[in-house]
Design brief:
352 residues, alpha+beta
Length: 352
């Protein structure tokens, strides 16, 4: 019987369709989405860039906000896939002494389940940071579409404030703000050599930092980070309630990815922010696999006087449309959603 079990396990191991996703330097790409050709989510890669079994040979669509989407055929032996970087570099600017630092953010939110795209929101936010008193002003505009009017209202209420907060300038570099914020759990950046660092706490490894091509890229398991913080602060009841509430969300992944432009010394300023993605995915009995993706991209930056701030607000005020935002994405080299997701998206646009 033991021999039969071992033989069966061996056969299962051989037949598993493993997919491994790496960047141009061979580094693992965590939290890349792997979908079928009809935009049904198969899974999300772990910190090692791997999904152990995609459930049989098939054509899959791989997407990650920092890379060009790719469609590949995965055979019986699995596949190692290399992704090419997306082009989201900002033009160089010279630091000048002005009253305000300016950063324009383009953002989009997409929620998908087995029935297709449930909700889409995209827009532009102009952020103005007053360098004298540290106060921040924001001017935003967006469009929203959903399967139903009720869904549109609900998601706007649930996500609206979070989207606006993420689209604002964050003055403190992550290396300074994160360890202080999560001090209780011993969060730290550990040098791993060759421009890499691991993000660790007293409970294990949570993410990584990679410096390459004038950019610093952060990847972190945001869900485990928050759970570890509750445990470290002794908030046992709150932790238990959180785990109980999330128990139905099987295979949950909640990740955060952020990129900055850096100088030769590895430093960056708030206006060097390039992009960010916050992703949440899980399985549940009612909706199957659910994917929530919130993307943010810097599209313009500079240093402005008070008069220029007023003029910028006037110049950028307009009524947005889906077609305009698609054009805006192409103009600013914003990585497109995977073609299969765009096809699902078009159904929502036509309905709206």
């Amino acid at each position: 019987m033991l021999a039969a079990i071992l033989t069966l396990c061996g056969a299962m191991s051989v037949n598993a369709q493993k997919i491994e996703i790496v960047d141009m330097d061979g580094n693992a790409v965590p939290y890349a989405s792997v979908m079928t050709a009809d935009a049904t989510l198969i899974g999300v890669t772990g910190m090692d860039g791997v999904i152990a079994d995609i459930g049989g040979p098939k054509t899959v669509v791989i997407s990650h906000v920092a890379y060009q989407p790719k469609t590949v055929a995965v055979g019986a032996d699995g596949l190692r896939v290399t992704l090419e970087d997306a082009d989201f570099n900002l033009a160089e600017i010279t630091v000048t002494k002005k009253d305000y630092t300016y950063l324009q953010i383009y953002y989009r939110v997409v929620i998908i389940n087995k029935d297709g795209v449930l909700y889409y929101r995209a827009g532009i936010m102009d952020n103005f940071l007053n360098e004298r008193n540290g106060k921040q002003q924001s001017s935003k505009q967006h469009i929203t579409m959903a399967k139903s009017g009720t869904m549109k209202v609900a998601f706007n209420l649930l996500l609206g404030d979070k989207i606006d907060a993420k689209a604002q300038i964050h003055p403190e570099p992550l290396e300074e703000s994160m360890p202080e914020k999560f001090k209780s759990q011993g969060l730290r950046f550990v040098d791993a050599g060759s421009g890499k660092k691991s993000i660790e706490d007293n409970y294990g490894t949570l993410g990584s930092v990679i410096d390459r091509d004038g950019q610093r890229r952060f990847t972190i398991d945001a869900y485990q980070l928050s759970l570890h913080r509750l445990e470290a602060e002794g908030k046992t009841k709150k932790l238990e309630k959180r785990l109980e509430r999330d128990a139905e969300m099987e295979n949950r992944v909640n990740s955060s990815y952020r990129a900055y432009a850096i100088d030769e010394s590895g430093h960056y300023r708030p206006e060097d922010y390039l992009m960010e993605q916050n992703m949440l995915t899980w399985d549940d009995s009612k909706n199957g696999q659910v994917l929530v993706v919130m993307d943010y991209f810097a599209t313009n930056r500079g240093y402005l006087s008070k008069e220029q701030v007023k003029q910028t607000k006037r110049d950028n005020k307009m009524k947005l449309s889906y077609d305009y935002l698609q054009q805006f994405e192409r103009q600013h080299h914003i990585p497109a959603l995977a073609p299969e997701v765009l096809a699902r998206m078009q159904e929502l646009v036509d309905k709206d």
